[in-house]
Design a protein that fits this description.
Layout lengths: L1 E5 L11 E3 L1 H7 L9 H15 L4 E6 L14 H6 L2 H27 L1
Parallel strand pairs: 1-3
Antiparallel strand pairs: 1-2
């Protein structure tokens, strides 16, 4: 099972804090494809588990995400580097490659 709570910023739109059954990691060998940097790991995880129909949100489970986009952290050098154009471009390329070449196989392995 995969589920997530409400971070008070993205809500249902993006699972920033995910609860993941360890069986998934044992079967696949990872939580998110290692090709991806942190920016798109959440998105690929959401897309993967939505294909399996395993992504409920638990609204009563809430926390406050400490991130510049939520106005709760400074946009320092670490965030600037992680959100830079080349990082996003690399993640997008890796994401598309994963979806094209590996996602269907991962979904099949999880459904066995």
């Amino acid at each position: 099972m995969v589920a997530y709570g409400n971070d008070g910023h993205q809500g249902e739109g993006l699972p920033t804090g995910v609860f993941l059954d360890s069986t998934i990691v044992r079967i696949l060998g990872y939580m998110v494809p290692v090709l991806l940097f942190t920016c798109l790991q959440t998105i690929i995880g959401r897309r993967s588990v939505r294909l399996l129909g395993l992504l409920p949100i638990f609204q009563m489970l809430t926390w406050s995400i400490l991130h510049p986009y939520a106005g709760k952290a400074e946009n320092d050098q670490t965030y600037a580097e992680a959100n830079a154009g080349p990082v996003w471009e690399n993640d997008e390329r890796a994401f598309n490659e994963y979806v094209q070449l590996f996602l269907a196989n991962d979904v099949e392995r999880l459904n066995e």
